[in-house]
Every structure is written in structure tokens, then in C-alpha cells.
């Protein structure tokens, strides 16, 4: 055997421990949480499905903010575009197959991602942030203007998805939508795990850490970021499409600055730059919001604010980031 | 041997101030050239003009016979004109192995891939391993760059440049900021650069210049005032004058 043969050299290098097993544990954890959610809140599946849709939006924000370092307060444009694309496909074109609607959502999100990316990536720092806000407001206004297509401020209705695979009808309790949501989340998460470790994912992390170095390697920072924006749009679009199927209505709030800002807050809460952080942040934020607003309808925002201040001050890496750091320290000891 | 890198009458002015005036030079494969000059001589501007970060007012830059004018910095890198930075520009959260993987994959046009990892590409791993060994970075290969010594970071800068397989390498003060104890490692890395590579080094450390360069170019007030053997540079009257006598006198006295 030739010890210098590339394949043998490769075998000698110790691979880091990230390994496939951690990935499977993550996917299994998502699946287990989904089952627990189903069993604990059988009457609240609609809320849980909405959480899944927003998880996709926050994952999508994480792709551009956490991985690439592009600050955005306008990412709901991508989510809303997906929701409207799926809704319009069903309401105006009779495409009611849920899988086709999700595909329409992904496509709508991708187009919105391309448009947002072309504009937002022109700026840097604060300018970038302002451009992203402008984008989501423009999308919002556009959707409001073309009311014949979007229903304007009344929202887009008449969305009646046909049974999933022709068998599973979307029931009143939202079971089918929930199962569809979990399946989509597992698929998206699996693909994003791969993406984050791919050469492209590495290049994106490189851009966040030093774009000048990336350019000095001969790689195009702008093209790479634009590509990530399109991918991010597809992810947000799937979430938007899921939301359209689950609620059977699409409102202007899905294209709002408020939702964009909330998505960024959820990401910071969970921890940027990690797919788990995006999920944990969204779940904690939305369940906490639901719980606290029911317990104290008048002061729930105050409590949310206190929670956020606490996290940012005492756990600046977010819930997942801080937990991972503590775990890492203990292991090293 | 024919020139791999040619600069012809390159000029640039900011407002009324001419920072680069009709600078011309040619380098053949294997050349080891040092570019020196007092502060404000226009060395950085010259590098930025060549790499495409600044647009010259006039003049031509050619790499292997191909005119580079009008190409952006990325295209120039892809054609083999690679630079290193005076202050290291690395990814603090990545390991040296990951840095080199990115550089190799980028050279091969594979950084756009959405799936797979370099860990499952034996030929990439092999090439990284060779680079790590060449520069003595094996021990630091899998530690985050933020945690490794500055001297090792400088070596990684050189390794990154080599991973791109350049035809011409511009080294901007490769030993800047490195503690005295670690400079020998940088020097041996420089001595071990591929024999057919043309290297233009910008450097302040004259000891390093004299050991490394076979030819020295002195830039002062945007023009080349000396281009010749290292042994002659301290004897040149114009060079002495440019440095106000201080450094040149020290050297000849020593």
C-alpha cells in the first residue's frame, strides 16, 4: 500500500467530531419535539404549525445574517412573497395541491430573495439595514396596491388546498398541516445542515469573517451573497407557503416590518450562526409570547422586553450559543 | 527568459498629487524582487494599482502576456496575480486546514458547491497536507486561527497564497509584526517558495531584503529611483538622498 496515495492520506487525517451522528441527533430531537408538541397541545396544532412557518423565516434570516453577516430588517418580504405565491397559485390559478403550493412558495421566495439581495447588497452596515427596511415596506405597499390579486388589506382568501397526496384532507384541528409542517422542517433542516458544511457554506462564513480575504482568494463576495439570498428566499418561501396552507388566508402582516424585526429578535434570542439557535429562539419566543399574553394580556410586552434584555446582557450568544459554550467548557475541563 | 509580469508607465494622481509616476518594471519566472522606499513613496498605491483595487490614470499591467487593465481584483487573482496582506487577513473562527481547503476549492472553481465537504475529497486533503507540511503548520492545522501564534498566522498567509498557485506573488511585508524569535521560520518559508514563481516583496526590514532579494527596486515620491542588485543599492546617491542619508549610511558603515 502506498502511504502517500491521496485516499490513504485522507484516512490518516483525524476528522473533527462534528460527524454525521450529531446531525442525526439534531434531526431526531426535532422529530421528538414534534411528537411531544402533538401530544401536549392537541388543540393548539394551528399555533404550532405557525411556529414551524416562522422557524423557516428565522432560519432564512440566519442564513444571511448569522452565516454571511448581512444585517436585515426586511426578511419578511421573502416570507410574505412565498405566502402570497402559494396563496395566489391556489386562489387564482386553481393549483391547490399542497406540494405544488409549497413549490410555488419556494419559487416566490426565491424571486423575492433575488430582488431583495440585488438591492440590499448594494449597501453596507447601516445603509444595508435601511435598504432592507425599504424593501419590505415596498413589498407591503405593492401587495396592498394590487388588491385584485392579493385581496389588499382584507387579505387573500379562497385558499382551499386539496388533500395531501390526494388522501389526507386538511382538517379542522390542523393535524395534516402540522404533520406536513414537521416533514418540511425536517427536510429543510437536513438540507441546511449539509449546506452549512459545504464549500459554499464555508465561503459564506469566510465572507462574514473577512470579505477582503475572500476577494483576495479570487471569489466574488457579491455573487456568493446573492446566491445565499436566493437560497434564503426559498427557505422563507417554504415557510410562507406552509402558513398559507395552514391558515388558508394570507394577510399583509406577513409582509410587514414588524414580522421582519421579530424574526431578527428571535434569531438573536436563540443564537445567530447556528441552525439550532434559529429553531430554539423561535419556539421559545412564540410559545412564551402565547403563554404570557394569555396570562397577562396587558403587560405581556413588558415581560417579553425584560426577557430580551436579560438574554442580550447575560447571554449575548443567545440561548443555544450560550448553552453550547458552557457545554464546550465543561468538556474541555 | 520572457517576462511573466510587466508594468509599463503606470501612473496615478490623487487630485494634483502624482503618487505613481510612469512606473515600469518587468519580472521573469523565478525572480525575487524587493520593493523598498521611504514612507509615502507610493508602495501601497503601486500594489493597489497592480491588483486592481485602484484604477490607474494611464499605463499597462500584463500577466503572462495578457493585459489586466479593466479586470477586477478577483479576475486578476484567478489569472495568477496573488497578494498577501501586511496585517494578516484571516478567518478567526476557522482552522488553517479550513482556510487552505477554501483556497484550493476556490482555485478549482468548486466553492459554489452546495453539498459535500472537503473532508470527503481526498485530493484536496492531500494538497492541504502538503502545504501544511511545507510551511510547518501541521501542529496548528486544526486549531482556530484566533488561537494560534501570530508567526503561524503569517505562515498561513503565505500558504494561502501558494494554495492559489500564483504566477506572480506580491508579498506585503511578510514578516511585519512577527516577534524576532519567529522571523527565521518566515525567512525559511520565503526561501522555500516555488522556484518558478515570480515574487515581489514589499519590505521595510533591510536585513530580510538583503537575504531574500536578488534585485531591489527603490520607489521614492512615486518614481523608481533605483533598480538593480542589492549590493549596489546602498552606494546609490539618489537612494541615500531619498532616505535622508540615515539608513544608507548605517549600512555602508557597518
From TrEMBL, chain A:
Record key words, sorted: Cell membrane, Membrane, Transmembrane, Transmembrane helix
GO molecular function, one term: branched-chain amino acid transmembrane transporter activity
Gene Ontology CC entries for this record: plasma membrane
Protein name: Branched-chain amino acid ABC transporter permease
UniProt xrefs under InterPro entries: ABC_transp_permease, LivM-like
Membrane-topology annotation of the record: Multi-pass membrane protein
Pfam families per the UniProt record, alphabetical: BPD_transp_2 (PF02653)
The keyword Nucleotidyltransferase is assigned to this record: no
From TrEMBL, chain B:
GO molecular function: ATP binding; ATP hydrolysis activity
Record Gene3D superfamilies: P-loop containing nucleotide triphosphate hydrolases
Keyword entries, A-Z: ATP-binding, Nucleotide-binding, Transport
PROSITE patterns tied to this protein: ABC_TRANSPORTER_1, ABC_TRANSPORTER_2
Occurrences of domain ABC transporter (ranges): 5-246
Gene Ontology cellular component annotations, sorted alphabetically: plasma membrane
Pfam families attached to this UniProt entry: ABC_tran, BCA_ABC_TP_C
InterPro entries: AAA+_ATPase, ABC_AA/LPS_Transport, ABC_transporter-like_ATP-bd, ABC_transporter-like_CS, BCA_ABC_TP_C, P-loop_NTPase
Record-stated family: Belongs to the ABC transporter superfamily.
Name of the protein in its database record: ABC transporter ATP-binding protein
Record organism: Mesorhizobium waimense
Amino acid at each position: 500500500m502506498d502511504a502517500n496515495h491521496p485516499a490513504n492520506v485522507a484516512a490518516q487525517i483525524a476528522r473533527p467530531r462534528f460527524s454525521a451522528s450529531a446531525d442525526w441527533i439534531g434531526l431526531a430531537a426535532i422529530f421528538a419535539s414534534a411528537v411531544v408538541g402533538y401530544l401536549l397541545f392537541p388543540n393548539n396544532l394551528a399555533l404550532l404549525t405557525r411556529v414551524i412557518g416562522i422557524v423557516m423565516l428565522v432560519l432564512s434570516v440566519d442564513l444571511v445574517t448569522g452565516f454571511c453577516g448581512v444585517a436585515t430588517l426586511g426578511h419578511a418580504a421573502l416570507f410574505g412573497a412565498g405566502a402570497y405565491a402559494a396563496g395566489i397559485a391556489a386562489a387564482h390559478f386553481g393549483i391547490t395541491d399542497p406540494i405544488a403550493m409549497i413549490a410555488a412558495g419556494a419559487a416566490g421566495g426565491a424571486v423575492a430573495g433575488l430582488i431583495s439581495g440585488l438591492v440590499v447588497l448594494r449597501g453596507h452596515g447601516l445603509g444595508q439595514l435601511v435598504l432592507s427596511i425599504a424593501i419590505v415596506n415596498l413589498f407591503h405597499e405593492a401587495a396592498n396596491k394590487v388588491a385584485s390579486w392579493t385581496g389588499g388589506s382584507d387579505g387573500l382568501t379562497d385558499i382551499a388546498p386539496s388533500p395531501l397526496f390526494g388522501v389526507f384532507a386538511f382538517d379542522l384541528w390542523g393535524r395534516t398541516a402540522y404533520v406536513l409542517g414537521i416533514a418540511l422542517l425536517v427536510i429543510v433542516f437536513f438540507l441546511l445542515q449539509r449546506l452549512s458544511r459545504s464549500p459554499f457554506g464555508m465561503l459564506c462564513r469566510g465572507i462574514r469573517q473577512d470579505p477582503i480575504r475572500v476577494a483576495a482568494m479570487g471569489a466574488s463576495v457579491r455573487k456568493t451573497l446573492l446566491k445565499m439570498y436566493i437560497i434564503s428566499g426559498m427557505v422563507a418561501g417554504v415557510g410562507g407557503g406552509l402558513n398559507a396552507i395552514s391558515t388558508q388566508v394570507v394577510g399583509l402582516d406577513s409582509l410587514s416590518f414588524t414580522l421582519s424585526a421579530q424574526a431578527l429578535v428571535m434569531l438573536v434570542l436563540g443564537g445567530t450562526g447556528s441552525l439550532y439557535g434559529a429553531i430554539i429562539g423561535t419556539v421559545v419566543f412564540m410559545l412564551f409570547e402565547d403563554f404570557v399574553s394569555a396570562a397577562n394580556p396587558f403587560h405581556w410586552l413588558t415581560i417579553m422586553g425584560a426577557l430580551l434584555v436579560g438574554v442580550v446582557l447575560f447571554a449575548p450568544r443567545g440561548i443555544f450559543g450560550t448553552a453550547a459554550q458552557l457545554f464546550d467548557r465543561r468538556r474541555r475541563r | 527568459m520572457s517576462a511573466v509580469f510587466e508594468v509599463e508607465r503606470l501612473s496615478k494622481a490623487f487630485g494634483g498629487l502624482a503618487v505613481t509616476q510612469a512606473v515600469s518594471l518587468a519580472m521573469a519566472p523565478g525572480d525575487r524582487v524587493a520593493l523598498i522606499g521611504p514612507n509615502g513613496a507610493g508602495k501601497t498605491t503601486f500594489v493597489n494599482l497592480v491588483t486592481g483595487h485602484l484604477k490607474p490614470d494611464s499605463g499597462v499591467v500584463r500577466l503572462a502576456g495578457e493585459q489586466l487593465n479593466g479586470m477586477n481584483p478577483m479576475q486578476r487573482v484567478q489569472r495568477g496575480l496573488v497578494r498577501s496582506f501586511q496585517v494578516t487577513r484571516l478567518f478567526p473562527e476557522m482552522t488553517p486546514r479550513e482556510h487552505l481547503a477554501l483556497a484550493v476549492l476556490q482555485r478549482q472553481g468548486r466553492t459554489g458547491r452546495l453539498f459535500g465537504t472537503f473532508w470527503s475529497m481526498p485530493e484536496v486533503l492531500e494538497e492541504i497536507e502538503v502545504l501544511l507540511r511545507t510551511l510547518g503548520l501541521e501542529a496548528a492545522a486544526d486549531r482556530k486561527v484566533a488561537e494560534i501564534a501570530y508567526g503561524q498566522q503569517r505562515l498561513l498567509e503565505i500558504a494561502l497564497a501558494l494554495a492559489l498557485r500564483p504566477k506572480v506573488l506580491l508579498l506585503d511585508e511578510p514578516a511585519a509584526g512577527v516577534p524576532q524569535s519567529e522571523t527565521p521560520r518566515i525567512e525559511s518559508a520565503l526561501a522555500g517558495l516555488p522556484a518558478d514563481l515570480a515574487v515581489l516583496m514589499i519590505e521595510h526590514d533591510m536585513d530580510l531584503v538583503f537575504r531574500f532579494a536578488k534585485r531591489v527596486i527603490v520607489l521614492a515620491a512615486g518614481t523608481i529611483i533605483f533598480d538593480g542588485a542589492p549590493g549596489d543599492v546602498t552606494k546609490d546617491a539618489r537612494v541615500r538622498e531619498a532616505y535622508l542619508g540615515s539608513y544608507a549610511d548605517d549600512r555602508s558603515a557597518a
